[in-house]
Amino acid sequence: MSSGKKKIRFRHSIRVQLACIFILALVLVVVSSFAINRFFLQDYYVRNRTQRLEKIFAQIDSIEESGNTGSEVFVEECGKLVNDTNISTVIVDSSFDIRYSTENRSDILISRLVWHILSNDEKRAPSREDGSRPEGEEEPFRGEKILRQTDDYAMAITNDPMVSSQYIELWGILGNGDLIFMRTPLESIRENVSIANTFLFYIMAISAAIGIVIIWFLSKKITDPVLELTEVADRMAHLDFEAMYDAKGKNEIDELGAHINELSVKLREAMSDLQTANNELKKDIEKKEELENMRMEFVSNVSHELKTPIALIQGYAEGLKDNISSDEESRNFYCDVIMDEADRMNKMVKNLLTLNRLEFGNEEIKLERINLTELVKNCMTSSDIMLKQFDASATLDRADALYAWGEEFLVEEVFMNLFSNAIHYCSGEKRIEVSLKEKGDKVRVNVFNTGEPIPEEAVGHIWEKFYKVDKARSREVGGTGIGLSIVKAVMNSLNNDCGVVNYDNGVAFYFELDRA
Choosing a second label site near 453 at 20 to 30 A (CA), which of 52, 361, 440, 461? Predict the structure, then answer.
C-alpha cells in the first residue's frame, strides 16, 4: 500500500475520528468550565458573602433580642459568629457607644456607619430588584452598587475613600435599637477568584493533556479489534476462510467477532461442499466423456472386427448362390468358411456381452471356496485337442489340492483365456508350463509359453479391447482381441491382480486369488 493511501486511510480511520470526537468533547468541557469559572465565580463569591453577612446579621439580632447585650456571653457569641470569616464588625448603641467590635480601630468602622446613616437613603435606594436605577435618577456616588435594602438593613458594594478599596458593606438597626456595621473586602474575593482561576487553568490544561493522551491510547484499544475484524472480513472477501477473530473479552465487538468466526466456518464448509460437488461434477463429466469415447471406440472397433467376417460370409454366400464352384468339395469349403466366420462373430458378441457385464458391474459375484488345482487340471484336459492341433505340450507343477476364493465360472474363464492364448502363440519348443504358487495370503496361477516375447511398447496395451500385437497372427488363430480385456475385468471384479512377464524364450501370464 502506498504512503498516500496509508495517509488517506489513517485520516479517515475510526481511531482518528473517535479520538477527535472525544478530544473535542474534552476541550469543550474544559473551555466551558474555565469560562464559567472565569465569568461567574466572582459573582458566586459575592452572593455567598452577601448571604453570609445576612445570616450573621440575623444571628446577632437574635442574640441581642435574648437580652445579653453587652455581656461577656454576648461578646463570646458574636466572636464565634465572625471569627475566621474576614468580616469586620462593630455594634454601637444609639449614643454610638461600642457594644462589640472586631477591630482595634473601631472608629474607622463607626465613621463608615455614620456616613451611611447620614447619606440620603432615598436617593441611594434602588427602584428595581436587580439593583439598577430608573433612567435619570442620580447616582449616590461613584463606585457604589446597592445589593439589598430592607427595613432593618441595607447592603452595597462601596468604595472606601480612606483606603481606596472596595468592600461589601452591611449596615442596619438591630431589634433592640443598636446599630450594626459589617464589611468584608471585595479585593480578597477577587484575589481568591484570580488564584482559583489560575489554578483551575493549570489543572485543566494538565488534565486536558493527560486526557488527550489517555483518549488516544483508549481509542487504539477500542479500534484495534475493529481493525482486526476489518482484516478478517477482507481475507474472507478474498475467500480466505482460515482467518479468525481472536476475542479477548465479552463486549459487543467480541460478540460480532464470534459471529464472523461462525460465518467463516460455515462459509468454509459451504465452499468445501461446493468444491466437492464441483469435483464430482467434473468426474461425472470426465466419466461421461470417457464413456462417450469408449462408446465411439467400441463402435469403431466392433465395426472393424465385424467387417472382415461379414465380408467373408457375404462373399462366400454370393459365390454359393452364383454356383461359382460346382464341385462339392469347394461348396463344402465355402460353407466351412461361412460357419467359421459366423462362429467367430458369435464368440465376439458373447465375449463383448460378458465384458460389458463385468465392466459395468451388472453381475453380482458370489465368492466360493474352489479347488484351484482341480479346476486347472480340468481346463487343461479339455484343451487336449487344441494342444494336439498346434502340436504343443502342457505341464502342471502341482498335484495336491490348493484352495482359493473366487467364482468358479469366472476363474475358469480367466484361465481358459490365458491357456488358449498360450496355445495359439506358442512357438519354438512349443512348451506350456502351468504353475500354482502360494504367496502369503495369495495364490498365483502362472501360465508360461515358449515363443517370442511381447514387445515392450505393447505390454501396456495388451489389456485394452481389440488390441492385437500381431494382427495377422491373431486372425490366423481366431483371436478377437477381447480375451485379455475379459481377464482384466474379471480380476478387477475379484479385487485381485493379473499381469504379464517377458522372458528370453517366452511369455508368462499370471493372475492371483485370495487363499482359502
Answer: 440
